[in-house]
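Retry 2 of 3 after timeout on previous attempt. Resubmitting C-alpha cells to design endpoint.
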C-alpha cells in the first residue's frame, strides 16, 4: 500500500541555495525542530517532516502496514513537491536518521548530504526490544496494551517528561529550562493528535527493517554526531554505522546522551554548520574545475560567490570549534573526533570504554560486531517512554 507524502512544517523559507529536510525521532513531532534546529538551517529553506503515523502525517487506514519502499517513496515525493526535486541535506535524529539513510539508499539523486544525530541502521535487535515493541508482539492483546501504555504516557506533562528523562545524560542540562519544557509540551500535544494504531505501525516498520547491509551503497557525505553516553542507541552501534558508511565524518560528544542538540546545543549547531560549510567548499572547488576552460576571470567569480555564500549562511560562535580547529579530519570515519564538554576523572564514558575493551580517548577504530545487527549488548529498541 502506498503512502501519501508528509506535510511540511517550514523551519526556514529563505532563498539561500541550501535546502534542508529535518526528520524527528520516534514519538516526537516536527515542532521539536522549531526550538532545536541550528541557525544554518533556519537561514535556509528548511522543512521538517513527521515520521509515518505521527501528527500531522496520518496513515490512510488506521494502523496500516508500512513498507520501507513506501516510506522512502513518500518522502521522495515530498522533497520533489517542496524543493522542486533539488537535492537536500537530510538531518535526522534517531529514527529520523534511520529514515534518512533509507531515503538516501533509494533516492540518492534527491540527497546532497546527511547529518545523523543519535541514529541507527537496524531497527530491531532480538531480545533487546523496549517495552512498547514487546507489547506489540503479544498475541491478541498486544495492540490494546500498547494503546493503554501510550495514552497514559502522554496524558500529562509530568508523565511525559518523566518518561523521557533517560534521553539526556546530565539531568541538570538545559533539558530542565523553560524553553525545553515548552518545546516538549508542544510535542506532547501533537502526539495526542496521533492515532496509537499509526504509531504502532511505525514501530513495526522500524523493527522489521535493517539497513546494515545497504550502508556501503550510500555514496553521499555523512556527518554522524554520537553521544558517548547515549542510553537509547548505544554509541558502539552508532560508531559501527560510521565504520560501514563510505563517506562519513564522526564526532563523538563526551558526557552527552541521546539529545546532543539539547544537551550541547551550541556545539552541535557549530559542528553541523562546519560540515555544511565544508560541503559548500567542496562544491566551490568543483565549480572552479568545471569553469577552468573559461579562464581565470570565471574561476575568480565562482570563488567570490562561494565565499559570499558561506558568509551569508553561517556565523560560528566563539565557543564553537570551527572546521579549521580539527573538528573534522579526512579519513574512513572509523576514528571519531572527540569533544569534552566537561571532564570527570571517572566518567561513565570512560567506564563504558573499559567495558568495550577500549582506551577512553584512543582505539575507537575497533568498535563493531559480527552480525548484521550486532551492536553493544545494552542496545535498546524504540520505547514509547524514550525518544528515538
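Retry 2 succeeded. Sequence:
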Amino acid at each position: 500500500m502506498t503512502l501519501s507524502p508528509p506535510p511540511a512544517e517550514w523551519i526556514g523559507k529563505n532563498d539561500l541555495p541550501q535546502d534542508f529536510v529535518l526528520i524527528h525521532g520516534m514519538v516526537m513531532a516536527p515542532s521539536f525542530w522549531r526550538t532545536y534546529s541550528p541557525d544554518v538551517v533556519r537561514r535556509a529553506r528548511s522543512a521538517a517532516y513527521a515520521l509515518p503515523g505521527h501528527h500531522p502525517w496520518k496513515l490512510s487506514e488506521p494502523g496500516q502496514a508500512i513498507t520501507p519502499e513506501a516510506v522512502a517513496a513518500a518522502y521522495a515525493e515530498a522533497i520533489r513537491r517542496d524543493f522542486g526535486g533539488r537535492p537536500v541535506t537530510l538531518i535526522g535524529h534517531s529514527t529520523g536518521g534511520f529514515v534518512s539513510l533509507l531515503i538516501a539508499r533509494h533516492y540518492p539523486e534527491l540527497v546532497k548530504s546527511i547529518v545523523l544525530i543519535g541514529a541507527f541502521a537496524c531497527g530491531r535487535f532480538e531480545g533487546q526490544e523496549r517495552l512498547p515493541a514487546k507489547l506489540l508482539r503479544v498475541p491478541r492483546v498486544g495492540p490494546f496494551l500498547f494503546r493503554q501504555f501510550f495514552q497514559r504516557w502522554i496524558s500529562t506533562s509530568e508523565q511525559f517528561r518523566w518518561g523521557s528523562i533517560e534521553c539526556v545524560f546530565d539531568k541538570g542540562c538545559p533539558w530542565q529550562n523553560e524553553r525545553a519544557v515548552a518545546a516538549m509540551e508542544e510535542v506532547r500535544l501533537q502526539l495526542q493528535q496521533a492515532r496509537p494504531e499509526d504509531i504502532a505501525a511505525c514501530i513495526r516498520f522500524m523493527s522489521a527493517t535493517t539497513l546494515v547491509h545497504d550502508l556501503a551503497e550510500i555514496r553521499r557525505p555523512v556527518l554522524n554526531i554520537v553521544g558517548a553516553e547515549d542510553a537509547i542507541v548505544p554509541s558502539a552501534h552508532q560508531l559501527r554505522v560510521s565504520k560501514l558508511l563510505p563517506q562519513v565524518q564522526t564526532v563523538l560528544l563526551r558526557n552527552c546522551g541521546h539529545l546532543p542538540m539539547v544537551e550541547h546545543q551550541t556545539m552541535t549547531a557549530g559542528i553541523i554548520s562546519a560540515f555544511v560549510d565544508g560541503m559548500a567548499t567542496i562544491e566551490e572547488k568543483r565549480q572552479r574545475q568545471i569553469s577552468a576552460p573559461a579562464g581565470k576571470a570565471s574561476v575568480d567569480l565562482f570563488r567570490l560567490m562561494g565565499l559570499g555564500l558561506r558568509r551569508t549562511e553561517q556565523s560560528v560562535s566563539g565557543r564553537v570549534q570551527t572546521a579549521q580547529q580539527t573538528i573534522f579530519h579526512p579519513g574512513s570515519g572509523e576514528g571519531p573526533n572527540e569533544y569534552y564538554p566537561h571532564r570527570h576523572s571517572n566518567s561513565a564514558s570512560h567506564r563504558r570504554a573499559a567495558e568495550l575493551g577500549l582506551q577512553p580517548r584512543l582505539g575507537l577504530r575497533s568498535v563493531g560486531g559480527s552480525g548484521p545487527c550486532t551492536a553493544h549488548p545494552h542496545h535498546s529498541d524504540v520505547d514509547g517512554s524514550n525518544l528515538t
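Attempt log closed. The two ends are 25 Å apart (CA to CA).
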